[in-house]
Give the backbone structure.
Amino acid sequence: MARMVPFPMLPTESSAERRLYEGFLAQLSQEYVVYHSVDWVLSPSQPGGPPTQGEADFVIAHPADGLLALEAKGGQLSYDPATRRWAQTGRSGRHFLDEDPFHQARDEMHSLIEILSRQPGWVRWRPSYGYGVAFPDGIYDTDAHPAAKAAWAIDRDDLDRLGERVREVMAEWRHPGR
């Protein structure tokens, strides 16, 4: 069983996040630490500028496999390459997402690395790190665009093998020698 932070899971309206949390808990080994709903604030990038706030649905850490920032999107998602927009259909109907979920996960990962790289021991560990998106209600088997690879996604068909799929996504980002 993975070590989950927080444990037990705090209340959430997202059934997608709840199913993923339970799947990670049951299917990942105790070497994995899975953080749910991680918030942070970055110092302003320019003097006098506003701080930047961020949040990752999940951050998965493993001593050898590294770090994975994972964005979860419930409902059915579709991508329109002509407009470069994602649409989400769920209980509340259909709406367009404000941000590409893969870009969102990528930005989360970069923010986390910025924070972690200032911590003692970072240089010694220097883990591999990457990002992914989980679509527990839908199927995602074709790259929507070059930064939205199916290899970086977990979908409905992966829920029964969630532990294996997390390891595969993390392996996609493995840096030699790390």
